[in-house]
Amino acid sequence: MCEQIDAYAIHFGLSNEWPEEYADAFEQIITCFDDDPDKAFAYVIIATARSDDAAFLGLMGCGLLEDMLRDPSSELLDRIVAEARKSGRFRWLLSNPFKVAIAPRAWEAIEKFRITGPHEEPPQDKLPPRL
């Protein structure tokens, strides 16, 4: 999983084309929220811990994390809240999903941890350091 996230971060923004050898891995990262939300959460946590690219982490926040928050299980939502309590960097990431894109109960759970308003992404120059 770490290798997949590292490769995804490297190739993020380089071009619209993914290298063929990474196509399956990148597709798995992007789509796993539906079939395996625990794996999606793991990818988000790994990205948060391994990358200092604010644009890439913003993509993870408004992409994979936002997708997870559309209809999260209670257990997953509890894990997200627990991570938000521990990590300023995760709170920054959690500030990327827009209110209209996630479940109302998810918004209620994360709103107090966000550093921005309901439809405002956090400033890229304010990314907290890794733990």
End-to-end separation: 19 Å
Order of helices and strands: HHHHHHH
Structural class: mainly alpha
Mean pLDDT: 94
User: How many domain modules?
Assistant: 1
Gross morphology? globular
**Oligomeric assembly:** single chain
Rg over CA atoms: 14 Å
**SS summary, helix count:** 7
Beta-strand proportion: under 5%
Protein topology:
Layout: H1 2-11, H2 23-35, H3 37-50, H4 54-68, H5 74-86, H6 88-94, H7 104-110
Helix pairs in contact: 1-3, 2-3, 2-4, 3-4, 5-6
Task: Outline the structure in words.
The chain is mainly alpha-helical and 131 residues long. It has one domain (2-11, 23-126). Helices cover 60% and strands 0% of the residues. It contains 7 helices and no strands. It has helices at 2-11, 23-35, 37-50, 54-68, 74-86, 88-94, 104-110. The protein is globular, with a radius of gyration of 14 Å. The mean pLDDT is 94.
Task: Summarize, please.
With 131 residues, the protein is mainly α.
Which properties best describe this structure?
131 residues; mainly alpha; globular
